[in-house]
Amino acid sequence: MNELRTWLPTMPLIGAKLLELRKRRTIMIVTVLFTVALPVIFYGIRLAYHLSDPAQYAPAGAPDAFATAVTLMDEFGFIIAAVLGVTAGTADLTDGMFRHLVITGRSRLALYLARIPAGLLILLSLAAAGFTLACLATGFLHNPLPAGAVTPSPGAMADTGLWLELDLIIGFTVGLGLGSLMGQRTVPVILLILLEIIITPALAGHALPHLVNGERLIVGVAMDQLKPAALAGGIAVGPGGGPRQLNLPPMPVWALVAVIAGWIIGWSVLGAWKMSTRDA
After folding, report:
1. pTM value?
2. How many Cα atoms sit within 13 Å of 102 on the Cβ side?
């Protein structure tokens, strides 16, 4: 039991890591911008267009606006989550504090694990606030609905919110693990941006002969298959700037769970291992 307590992060340690991230004003401002401010700006523009010409432009709260707003929050949110994760995974190294933390005798594993709840607390709470604004806009700014359009139900919105939060959890944990593994910020951030805006859309949109099972191992492909129906009308980032579509045969549920869990757990294990074995 005592050995278990040595590597479990304590609440004071989690609070300290939370405070470290909050003090980084630039990354906090960017995170707020792309989680909370983004839907506000998007719906503000949609509302302005509708008020200027209601006959041509649909209401700001139309279903397609909800799909596009959440899709944009997801695309940019994954990147911001990855940047926040990389920042959390390399903060002690870039600040020159890693040696000091090791000398104090604290468990390196506990130091790593404490970053996960600290970073997710910031990220998921801000994303939840932005998503709530999108839901409120959809609920109160949807009249008159275009012909044939149906406002997403509360259940559909809840499913969409959970899907969005899961994608951000993946982005953060992968960024945290990759940042800790490589010990720097620039290359991990570039790799994860490439994964989100180039690699995943390219693989999801084209079934390569004899390599379909390999394509399915990309976590973004699994998340695309899980994408809620309420986002069907959203505009996502795809090759050449077009819509992102999943053109691969669907995976069974157990495979989806295995791929998503494998990315979260696998990168967390790699990051924790590197921190535990890194020279002070």
Report:
1. 0.89
2. 12
